[in-house]
Amino acid sequence: MRVLAAMSGGVDSAVAAARAVDAGHDVVGVHLALSTAPGALRTGSRGCCSREDAGDARRAADVLGIPFYVWDFADRFKDDVIDEFVAAYAAGQTPNPCLTCNEKIKFSALSERAVALGFDAVATGHYARLDNGELRRAVDEDKDQSYVLAVLTPQQLSRAMFPIGDTPKDQIRAEAAARQLSVANKPDSHDICFIPTGDTRAFLGATIGVRPGKVVDADSGAELGDHEGVHGFTIGQRKGLGIDAPAADGKPRYVTEIDPDSGTVTVGSSEHLQVWTIVARRAIWTSGTTPTEPFEAMVQVRAHGGLALADVEPLDGDGTDGVEGPAFRIRLRSPLTGVARGQAAVLYRPDAEAGDLVLGSGRIAVTGSVPGELATSAGK
């Protein structure tokens, strides 16, 4: 097969490309230039889109003896990932930009160009596995990225390759060193690649601007403080609430609700964070077939953590549950906390034998705090 290897400049994508070569494929390496300031250097180990990363990717391709190109996707990345990220925070949501990048850049824009140029598949360094077209968790559970890949359609998965998903990370580094790849000990990228400082609140503040609002108590409704915009908060946040006085009971306060229309941020105890029901929109079924009956699944609501057994009901998306289009309702068997609108709800097989199998995903739109009941608005 002709394989396009997406090379970020890190150790994972370099080994993924090397394994594609070993498998006998005709491999071409490509680095995606996603930054609108391509001359920027990386800061510490943050990000994956800098000039240094492009150089690291090129050197890895040279060692592997494969052609290498840099493709400029900066405009598409800004429109589809950065702008959506900003708009979601402005709407009181908590988006996952890595998930959006996979959905709209790496396995949509990049894959489409690859197919147009005659490639059969796109190989990446994601920690996940494909088994007969079905998406599964990686062997290394600590590095598993199936959560951020669960937004891919069956067609997109059919053109994807994840060569390192069957190997623990420490063995990937050892393999890179044995192959004399200079990125063998390169630190992992972390945080958000287009916010190299790691200060998300400052980035959003400079982008969205000041939109003052009130911080109020969940029980009494009393005003506890002021803020400069709901974009500075996310569900479950404990620090940086701008509250001077401690709670009457001395317990920590957390962000429990965000209302972008009124600019109100509600804070309360950990008990207020409990979510029992979820409606997710933009449903994607990994098998390509929409379920018609309720079923049991393990639900994950964050990239790392937030896992619970649940009953899932497919919805026709007629708007009665606060969403339109393909959707599903989740009734949790035990409550989860820190469930934020805009994040993904990813469904896995519930049994121990095949519990690593992804069934589908959707974006969290509505949450409810009463077992078996749902909120009737976009908020909690």
Number of helices: 8
Strand order of the largest sheet: 12-15-14-13-16-17
Extract low-pLDDT stretches. 375-380
Mean pLDDT: 89
Helix content: 10-25%
Q: Could you give the count of β-strands? A: 17
Element-by-element helix/strand order: EHEHEHHEEEHHEHHEEEEEEEEEE
The CATH architecture designation of the largest domain is 3-Layer(aba) Sandwich
**Which CATH C-level class of the largest domain is it?**
Alpha Beta
Q: What is the SS-derived class?
A: alpha/beta
CATH superfamily of the largest domain: HUPs
> How would you sum up the global shape?
globular
Number of domains: 3
Q: End-to-end span in angstroms?
A: 49 Å
CATH topology of the largest domain: Rossmann fold
Query: Beta fraction of the residues?
Result: 25-35%
Major sheet attributes:
6 strands, antiparallel, barrel
- Oligomeric organization of the protein chains: single chain
